[in-house]
Amino acid sequence: MDLKKINKLKHTDSNNFFLLSGPCAIEGEEMALRIAEKVVAITDAFKIPYVFKGSFKKANRSRLDSFTGIGDEKALKILRKVSETFDIPTVTDIHEVSDAAMAAEYVDILQIPAFLVRQTDLVVAAAETGKTVNLKKGQFMSPESMQHAVTKVTDAGNDMAMITDRGTMFGYQDMIVDFRGIPTMRKFAPTVLDVTHSLQQPNQSSGVTGGRPEMIETIARAGIVNNVDGLFIETHFDPKNAKSDGANMLDLSLLEGLLGRLTAIRKTVTGFK
User: Fold this and answer.
1) CA-CA distance, 30 to 48, in Å (whole number)?
2) How many CB atoms lie within 10 A of CB 100?
């Protein structure tokens, strides 16, 4: 996959890691533009290729009363406005075959959630849009098995696939990143480390997913040292009051320092200037 083929993606010659970052869910226009503006300024300064991330709806919820979205078309229009306002690509996750063509009208990358990455019809529908497809590794899957998900995309005539590792289930309420899987998956496609979802603590008795955001930098540093192509970091200016995944998101005020330190590590690892 050639990153330069992603519409509006900047700094592709910098040799830095690329970044998928934004809120877990689109809660409204003002919050999305506020987060995007801040992340664009930071990534431009560090020459980090940047894709704005935001879910237009949340289908995988612990409880029936959990926040699922502000309306599909409304959220997708906000994603389009973010892209047009800051001239950056956007990514959102899809959950049903019918979502693929709809979301492809608004965003540049279609993301297949980890729980759904074995759903052939969904993967193929995303691939057939011609958009880049981000395949999140199932928490229950081996790194080697992601080759078959990538093959579904390429067999559908689309050479724009990437893999995102978001940890593997360890027991019932914890996620573990097995860094041995990074070089394995990089043989199949560019590989991203989803730092924040890897720190989730799902299946809590309250029905609200927990997390360990204090470990974000630890996991992100390890990913850069182990040559991940990109990082996935959900961020919000008020994580405690975010409507989804607030327990494991990075406070937006901490992003600049983190990306600066990660860029320095990347330079040490790769020798780029």
Assistant:
1) 24
2) 23
For residue 263 the two structure tokens come to 């860029």
Sign of the C-alpha dihedral, residues 263, 256, 169, 187?
negative
How many Cβ atoms sit within 10 Å of the Cβ of residue 272?
12
DSSP 8-state code for residue 249:
P
CB neighbours of residue 8 within 10 Å: 14
CB 159 within 8 A of CB 1: yes
Which residues span the domain enclosing 159? 3-270
In contact, 73 and 96? CB cutoff 8 Å: no
How do the pLDDT tens digits run along the chain, 273 residues long? Answer: 899 999 999 999 999 999 999 999 999 999 999 999 999 999 999 999 999 999 999 887 666 667 788 999 999 999 999 999 999 999 999 999 999 999 999 999 999 999 999 999 999 999 999 999 999 999 999 999 999 999 999 999 999 999 999 999 888 878 899 999 999 999 999 999 999 998 876 655 555 556 677 899 999 999 999 999 999 999 999 999 988 877 888 999 999 999 999 999 999 999 876
Alpha helices per DSSP H over 61-171:
72-86, 97-104, 120-128, 146-155
| Helices and strands per DSSP (H, E), number in the chain | 8, 13
> Which domain CATH number covers 202?
3.20.20.70
Listed in sequence order, the residues at least 6 apart from 175 whose beta carbon sits closer than 8 Å to its beta carbon are: 139, 166, 167, 168, 169, 197, 198, 199, 200, 201, 202
User: Number of structural domains, the chain?
Assistant: 1
User: 72-86 and 29-46 helices cross at what angle (nearest 10)?
Assistant: 30
